[in-house]
Amino acid sequence: MLTAKQNNQLVDLTQIPKKELAQLKLSSNYECPYCGSPVIFKQGPKRRAHFSHIAPCDYDSHTHESEAHQLSKLVLSQWLINQGATSVQLEYRLSAVNRIADIYFEWNQQKYVFEIQKSLMTPELFEQRNKDYCQSGIQVIWIFIRDIQERSHTYLLNQVMRLQKGNRLIHFNVLTETLTFFDHLVWLNQKEVEGTIESIPLKFLSLDQLLFPPQAYKQKRLSEWLAIKKEFRCQKYAGYQRKEYALLRMCAPFLINLSLLPSVVGWPIEEVAYEKPLFIWQAYVVLCIMSNYEEHEVFTLSEIRQKLRLHYRLKESQHTWLALKKYLELLSMFGMIREQFGYYEYIKKPHLYLQLEPYLIEDEQLGQLWLQQKN
Predict the structure, then answer these.
(1) What residue ranges do the domains of the chain occupy?
(2) Residues 355, 356, 359, 361: is their CA dihedral positive or negative?
(3) CATH for 67-211, among 3.40.50, 3.30.70, 3.40.1350, 2.40.10?
(4) Tens digits of per-residue pLDDT, 254-312?
(5) pTM
(6) Which of 31, 82, 276, 350 has the least C-beta neighbours within 10 A?
(7) How many angstroms separate the Cα of 346 from the Cα of each of 296, 307, 350, 351?
């Protein structure tokens, strides 16, 4: 443990020069910032200087924090003070729910906490923390600090950031003191996203920019999205060929594989519909319609949703209904189905080619319709 409290002041070992660390042995009355129990300062030839509990810490939220975590808290707390936030506190204790927030502050009469997360936790624990803060009348802002990887058109996110699926993501690089915001995300698979991504140095950022996401959606250029579709058709489909057995069985009667999915598959829907990649869950929807209905038969959104859940075991998200409805609207615009009086009519089977090149041409043609829908 690299921090402790002494006389209500935070002692941070990462901010103390090595030559001055020995003086800490002469002091006492150190307390754990999490549980308030006594701790002692230790320093030796094999282990770095740290604080250690005399008795085990039983506070649920207490974990060993990295230097990046400690430094991030100090930098962000000072930034909040400079922004004019009030009641800024590090290691804020919520005894009612047995939680300790990394940073607590108040802004415009609203209570907030920053939770700075680097290590992986279970989805259940992540949801429980959100629930605990909500019950306490506090809005939690998650800030992730583990490395992320930028690609040509997309970002590869780390495991802990994926816990915030379906919501805005905030990443902090403590070395450059830069915040990166991920808004209007489209999840291509369990790790990779595209969307509106903006990096802002902390010194140029206002607190309102951090707390209130922009509503306007800046559409990705068609050429960039076509490059994402082409990459799936030419490379990434192969990884799913080895595990999407149910989808491959649906493809077999139509003599196609995942690289030759119809062009109506693979268009961006912001909401997460199922715990499947974008191209895969949309393929399930299209092939489900083609397999279960004849042309000019009608069906409802609820029927399709039930078939996907019961017959093909697709695990839903909290936004399934909305995402599925948006995708059916796209299929209507692409001419595969027609919406009328709450029902959908299957009016035309999408083109099924045997070669890749015609699909790349048709992708671009449907892309023009997709842009019209956005405009």
Answers:
(1) 3-53, 67-211, 222-374
(2) negative
(3) 3.40.1350
(4) 999 999 999 999 999 888 888 889 999 999 999 999 999 999 999 999 999 999 999 98
(5) 0.74
(6) 82
(7) 5, 16, 10, 14
